[in-house]
Amino acid sequence: MENQTLHVQGMSCKHCVQAVEESVGQLDGVASVTVHLNDAKVDVQFDETKAPLTKIVETIEDQGYDVTQ
């Protein structure tokens, strides 16, 4: 398992937190996802072979947020 902290811009409310946690959490290979709204960060624990980081970033961006690293 790998751990990664992503910087995500555009999240502003509890709905944003829920959207990101649910969409990323549903990916096969993602063990946990935690959104830190005040810090604009998302912590993800994942299996790179099942859920590549590029797929996680794409999933967050599909929800309408910008991922910067």
Write a structural description.
By secondary structure, this protein is α+β, with helices and mostly antiparallel strands. It has one domain (2-68): Alpha-Beta Plaits. Helix content is 32%, strand content 35%. The chain contains two helices and four strands, in the order E-H-E-E-H-E. It has helices spanning 14-25, 53-62; strands at 2-9, 30-36, 41-46, 66-68. It has a four-stranded antiparallel beta sheet with strand order 2-3-1-4, covered by helices on one side. The protein is globular. The two termini are 19 Å apart. It comes from Alkalicoccobacillus gibsonii. Keywords: Chaperone, Copper, Cytoplasm, Metal-binding. This is Copper chaperone CopZ. Residues 2-68 form the HMA domain. It is found in: Cytoplasm.
Named CATH architecture = 2-Layer Sandwich
Low-confidence stretches: none
Q: How can the largest sheet be summarized?
A: 4 strands, antiparallel
CATH class: Alpha Beta
How many DSSP helices?
2
Kindly provide the radius of gyration, computed on alpha-carbon positions and rounded to a whole number of angstroms: 11 Å
Distance from N terminus to C terminus (CA atoms, Å) equals 19 Å
Per the CATH scheme, the topology name is Alpha-Beta Plaits
Going across the major beta sheet, what is the strand order? 2-3-1-4
**What structural class is derived from the secondary structure elements?**
alpha+beta
Helix percent band: 25-40%
Give the averaged pLDDT, no decimals.
96
- Number of beta-strand segments: 4
Total of domains:
1
The 3D shape can be described as: globular
Order of helices and strands: EHEEHE
Q: What portion of residues belong to β-strands?
A: 25-35%
